[in-house]
Request: fold
Amino acid sequence: MSAVEMAENVDVVPSKPRTVGRQRHRVNTPAPSPYLHYRRNIYQPLLSHLIRELDDMFTGKFSTN
Reply:
């Protein structure tokens, strides 16, 4: 069961946080839907970070000494 299906069971509409004109401490990528908002602002940066960390680990940038 997905989060959207669970929200429908309790009559909650999925929404995204409000977007302001100026952000200082986090990204503010505009998106037309909650799905795209979370994909652009949460999923993609997290995936990019994990790939970078794995790349660093396996290319020898971190030593075990």
